[in-house]
Design brief:
about 180 residues
Length: about 180
């Protein structure tokens, strides 16, 4: 259970409420303050409107600006500008460059470079210019020689075996003739 019991932390003191008269007084003071600010702004705007009326001929365009400058909630009371806030700018369709050169991120650039290097290595490997390719070709030549020698020995053994069998068959044939 949190410190201070079930209900809250007023520790036995009675709760105080604002009386309706105080609320009314605060509201009147707020309205008067807003009226004085609006009058000050209105006087400055009227001076500007009069000069614009003389130049342009109509002042109805500026009446819309007063409504958009009115701030909501606490913004009117506190004037703080956040230096880290970046205003969103609307881009026009004509400003967007779709076909222009796209900036690649570092990872993408490194990946493309790695693929190109791998392709270059494979071309050189197939041409037999790399150390690994030379070692592979030497190993293959040795294996080819060993297989050729093994095939030659096998052929000689087969011929020798056939000769022995032929001699045995000839001796057997003579032996059968002599018995008859």
């Amino acid at each position: 259970m949190p410190k201070g019991g079930k209900k809250g932390g007023h520790k036995g003191r009675m709760r105080t409420y604002t009386s309706p008269e105080e609320i009314d007084a605060q509201m009147k003071a707020e309205k008067e303050r807003k009226k004085t600010e609006d009058e000050e702004e209105g006087a400055a705007v009227n001076d500007d409107d009069q000069t614009e009326d003389k130049l342009a001929g109509s002042g109805s365009e500026d009446s819309d600006d007063d409504g958009s400058q009115k701030r909501k909630g606490v913004e009117g009371l506190i004037e703080i500008e956040n230096p880290n806030r970046v205003a969103q700018k609307a881009k026009k369709v004509t400003e967007i460059e779709l076909e222009g050169p796209k900036q690649l991120s570092r990872r993408e650039r490194e990946e493309i470079e790695k693929q190109k290097a791998k392709e270059r290595y494979m071309k050189m490997h197939l041409a037999g210019k790399t150390d690994q390719a030379k070692a592979d070709l030497a190993r293959l030549a040795i294996i080819r020689k060993q297989r050729e020698e093994a095939a030659r020995k096998k052929e000689e053994e087969r011929k020798a075996k056939e000769a022995v069998q032929a001699a045995a068959a000839a001796a057997k044939g003579l032996h059968t003739l002599s018995l008859k």
